[in-house]
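User: Fold this, then the next.

Assistant: Folding the first:
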Amino acid sequence: TTSFSATTPYWPLPPPTTAQKSVSTEVLTTIPFTLHDNRLLVDVFLDGQGPFVMIFDTGGANTLTPEVQRILDLKSQGQEFITGAGETRAHSTSVHLKSLRVGDFKLADQKFTVLNLNQIRRTFRFPHLDGIIGLELLRQAKVRIDMDHEFIRLVKQDAPPLDHAELLKFTIVD
């Protein structure tokens, strides 16, 4: 069992106080997002290429589409069957990437599931969708989401919660 926490402000934050300004040293990166049908879309760079448009999903594992696999010329590492929110199993493959970068935050040696996301793309009417990220980032950093200003901040794991923000604790079972 791995525990994660995210800090999500529910109203515009007031200007930072002197004490809050010192918290800026806790920030690893700030990532702008676009909100589409209550989903956060972020630009991601994979092996130095991109940007690729991906859903930032706190419970979502690294996933990319077959189109991105072709663009990056990645060789499949094996076949898998995965399940999502429903009972249906889907066929997928996996690939390994040298790097994932979102904002200024970089993760090395990342496994991605390759999955056709056309049904999700059509259902939620995404103009474009290259994949999903989230869970692997949460293993490395806390997340602060500012819905009013449309940005995500990745902060150090030991960063204190912000004033005027609500701390949401949850546990993800691997």
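Now the next one, as you asked:
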Amino acid sequence: PGMPRASVYTRIRSLVRSGTLSCIGHGRYVAIRKPRFTVPVTTWMREVNLFLVENFAGINHCITEAAGNLIVEVPKDDIDSIMRALKSKWQKVARRKEAKRFLAPLEGFILIDRLITDAPVSVEDSCPVPSPEKMLVDSICAHNSSQSLFQRIMEIYPVNINRLHRYATRRGVD
């Protein structure tokens, strides 16, 4: 009461950024009692992110580390140019699809994959990383998750259901 509408929205955005509130849908917020989901950012992730930011200003991307490899997701139209640039600095760079064909497990590779348009990405230490919604949907697409794991993650961490459904639809998951 008596507070300008813009001030209310500014305060809400600052509470969301600080982790006190979480957006659970369009215009709906809850006080967070769950720990905020964070992806640990490694030195390797920071280094590759800095390289991408310096050489491809404004590009949307997402970086995560899994099974000893770095997975870098970039827009489909930029995959070839980013691969060439990364290969100029690092030797072990491959497309993620091609890497799946190797019989022996890979380690120490930068694997390039396509970033789905409007994929939910979070920022940790200035590095774009997958949000919990993205990780859940991607694990379903890769057939790496069970229903109990999915439910457990949703119990532990705040998950925006609308964001999850929107990304699942873009990935073609029903």
